[in-house]
Protein 1
Amino acid sequence: MNMRGFIQILTRDLKVALRRWSELCNPLIFFLIVASLFPLAISPEASDLKEVGTGVLWISALLSSLLALDGLFRDDAEDGSMEQLVLSPVPLTIIIAAKILAHWLITGLPLVVIAPVIALSYYMPVDALTTLILALILATPTLSVLGAIGAALTVGLRRGGPIVGLLVLPLTGPVLIFGTLATDLAVQGESAAGPLYLLGALLALAVVLGPLATSAAVRVSLE
Amino acid sequence: MEFLRMGGYGTYVWSAYGITLVILVVNIWWTYRFYRKSRETLGEISGNFSKHQPTVRKIS
Amino acid sequence: MNLRWFYKLASPPYFYRLAGTLGPWLGGLSIALIVAGAYGGLVLAPPDYLQGDGFRMIYVHVPSAYLGMMAYVVMATAAAIGFIWRIKLAHAVAVSAAPLGASFTFLGLVTGAIWGKPMWGTFWQWSDARLVFFLVLFFLYMGYLALREVTEDRDKADRLSAVLAVVGVINIPIIHYSVEWWTTLHQGPTITRLDGPSITMDMLAPLLVMIAGFSVFFVWLLFVRLQGEILVREQKSRWTQELMQRGRV
């Protein structure tokens, strides 16, 4: 019953999102734009870009996932379906988990696909790309979960929008640290197994605890 | 004098202790100011109510 | 188990009176402890064989950092209690602890930077995990206060910020264990080790006194701020009206 509810919410959110193509692209375009601005601001020299590439990539991904957060709960909150979901026999935690998964598939996964292209433009060695992709696949869902907590806390607030970043970004520290560590190790040709395992652990932790915190926040927001 | 020099680290040690003192004092000030303001606001509100004469009840 | 004392404690008028009585004593005690600790740290403690007199900054840095973290634990625990059992006073404790905790964290960061400059050669070190996560702690406080600021309804603010506080509490053990998990500029634990402190008593004593002094200081101001907070929250209640008419204490 729960599994069915999960799949239903997942497919519903995906369908709704896919209807609005342009909105889907926003985080992706943002990612590309931010990553493109850095060479203009820092330096287009290959040697400089190689040095900052890892950081730029991860920060851009982080900021893009932050940008995408607004769409997670806003529509449902506005048209009243959020209250319906809260009242549903399917546990809110499961519903939220499905929503976060849908959100990641739409906003996080495209980042993972585009990232290698950007990485190459920053002269990242091709051998490092697999690790980069793997690290992003582990990290971006965690970022989505953390973002969901922030979105849920602010969805009911009139002036809540601007502070989502303030709430979410401090929590993303460890993800950023291990993600960039993994990428840097791969660039140097060494094994990134350690940080990758840690990213996996963080993901597991986030997936288990995140929806719980998010549903608590959603309930309060709807009061 | 040696006390103030702190073996050469004087500037650092005294800056650290100084900022600590400042922060502690500022906190004391802020906190009592908040308390005072709360009492004032309450005073205004209960001033409005003093027209009524509520039955005095013991606060246990 | 007789929990009556707990329920009494959760009653705002009772707690208000308790805080009012204890407040000045806590204030006096904390100031005495801090003065004693500072004297001990600046005068009595012998100079360190490595850092000379510079190490004396430990007596303001460590207590500040410790309180910054302890205040967060108090805040998160109180918020959780308020959220789960719907005790208004617990939420009042959380919101009162926040500005104090933020101040101590700020102080910890600044005193740490001042101490770092002569000893490590730099005000800041991004590669030091403990520094970074302690900075994150400061951001968590700011986020908590910001969230309360933009939430218009107080009960909603209480409950939303409670979720945020609890989510962020994971940062505390991260800070504590960061020196074990990563090699950092910070040394490993010197006090909270299983086989006893690795620092001599004549250096340790003032530190413990300072930590105690800061802790009592925190409780003191927490109580005073709580009194103000209670008055604000219970403005419309009869007991506050009556206290007002009898001339405040």
Protein 2
Amino acid sequence: MLAFLAASILTYIAGAPFLEFYATLVRRGLGTSVGIEVLIALTTVLVLTGLAACIPFSASMWNIGGEGQLCMGGLAATVALVALGTQSICVIVLFSMIAGGAWALIPAILRFKFRTNEIVSTLLLNFVAAYSVLYATREPLRLPQAMAPQSPILPQLFFIPGLLAVLVASVVVSYVLMEKTRLGYEIQVVGRSPRAAAYAGISMTYTGALAMIIGGAFAGLAGAIIPTSYLMSALMPGFSSMYGFVGMGVALMARLRTVDIPLNAFIVALLFVTLQFLHAGTGIPLLLAVAVVGLVMIVVAVLRRK
Amino acid sequence: MLPAVKVPQQAAILRVENLTKTFPPNVQVLNDIDLSLEKGKMYALIGENGAGKSTLLKIAIGLYKPSSGRLFFKGEEITGKSVGENIDSGMAMVTQGLSLISTFDSVENTAIQREFSRKFVLDLSDGGGKLSELARRLDFKTDFNKKVGNLPLEDCQKVEVLRRLACSVDLLMLDEPSTMLTPLEEEHLLHALKNLVAEFGLTVVITTHKFQNLLKYPDEILVMRKGAIVLRSTVEHLSPSDVVRAVTGEEPRERTKADQRVEAAPLLELSSLDSVDQRSGRSLKDISLKVHSGELVGVVGSAFSGKDVLAKAVMGMAHNTRGSVIFDGEDITRWKTRQILSKGLDCVLKDIDLMLVPTLSLGDNLALNQYYEQPFSKRFLMNRRAIDALAEKAVTAFAIRTPSIRAPVQVLSGGNQRKVVLARALLKESKVVVAEDPTIGLDIGTSQEVMDYLVRLRNRGGGVLLISEELGDVMTYADTIYVLYEGTVRNVLPASEATLEQVGAYILGLDKA
């Protein structure tokens, strides 16, 4: 497991002085309060999007729509906060999870009623969701005085305790779901052997759809957390910046095992944070961060294949 | 350890010294083997699944490297040489499971071998001619210009053998070549190989776990058990029971028949059933069949008889268009599989993809037919302990060999996987079990075990519907025999009146032997 940490360091070499990486990691990433806050928030988000990919993947439902589900979740949360004026975390959580779940239900229905490939439908719905956010922040939810489209400033609802609570709760719930419940068992059977599932009488449509909805709900929650925590202060177009896809990477690094997701999410988050600080400090391009993380994911996935 | 035959080193075409092979973590498959094979002979290598026969051949050809020991081919050491090098020196192997390219035709499949095409260019000139000549000589009739993917499986097997023979081969090894062939074709193959051995001094080694035909053709028989060679002899002195004893390490068992306790009302009754299997397109027409309590019904038929639809039709996996299936008093014709399972009718199907989830554990698979019932799940939660207990029970009661209870089912051998499916049907107290080719690919010992379990179910008053290719099994164990021909029931006869020749004739659609 630690072998990959070494790999991650190696891959980064394309830029700043070597030690600077570690220094920044420790000093800024873990050393400052800002660093830690962002780290925890980002980890939580990635755990959620990781689960959003992992659970449907286990049912052989290839949910590439984490981004979109996240957007719709964020949108729903913003609507609740701005238009409806609630401040309660519970409502926000509920709204965002329902929105995300519903957004994931669409490709599920398309798949089972019209045999549309869910990879395509989830992917394309991402764009629809992103544009919905764009529209929303330009018109109905717009903050008038801002130059770029964005929603009014949203209150910060998620502080460290809240984030940790969400993180732990989501992992625990997922673990229990997959390992201990009937639905989890059915998801695994359907995902690994659809033909044997027929023998057992497990409905592919029903189970697959449920897996998608659950995944979408997690992504939706992530979308709610992003603008209401340390990461951002309002809903903006492009607020997601790939968290959904990175989450997929996390899920694959964890080999679709729920218990491995938090650690992997943390590691990826750490890399991102460190590289962001490095960028600020030494001018290394930010896109490098994305490339490095991607490379790390590939290396890890290869090293960990059974 | 090895009696009788010793071969002088010079005449040996293949020699193996102290060969040991261990697979990680610590599974020892070959145990210090010494072997010398003489040129120009036909050898039969017999043994149960897992005895080490395939591994031995694969090491010989270079697919695996030995953990220790040395190998010599034609007098020269070949330990550690690659497959390519060994093929170039005159070895060839026909593997278990086909390795032909389905989008190529037979000529192209021959031409892609090393002998004919080096580098990247496919040289079609020689292959075709050699193929046809060989086919003529061996009396095989196939269309060599058809894409292999479109050829029936038996023809594919033949092409596999032929294309190896088309190369300059001194030692030909065949790993389970008869799995896809009918007994008649297996005879043809062995006969042809014997001729080649006599004419060209070719050395042939065949592995198999069936041995009916093998006592006729080979020069010598070698029996392997648990990684060692336990018997080596020429054929004259051997009786079938000697071989069985060597292979299983046990006495061959007496096969018993139960008393005829057939009750009035049948447990399972099919009446004028029409059914179609949407996947394969095959169908059944007007099938009427009864299985009574305490009865083992055997169903036989040729490949086109539609018997592969029967199990699916009963279990709710095919489209039943007319007629009815009545189980224990209820009409289950349109029922879904899960409903049928919960009524006490279970199955062991030939197509293992329908029966097991390979990456899930033994316990998880065993629960597949009853996970929604107590005690395995209560409301939404699965009772893992109950599942583990079930797995333990299955392993003990059915002697399933597995590295651990939690291991995924795909690491088990084919025979043990089948036992898992059987265990699942029997542990659930099923009243009737539909067994489709339950002993396919199994060695003698395991086959007997499997059939024993089915017989015990019958003896307890249950019913068994045995649909099988193995005429021997059916003749030995069935109380009543149905013969299917072209989709319908052609003949029904009680086992007491059935002879092998008679049933064989019925299968072919004839009225008399």
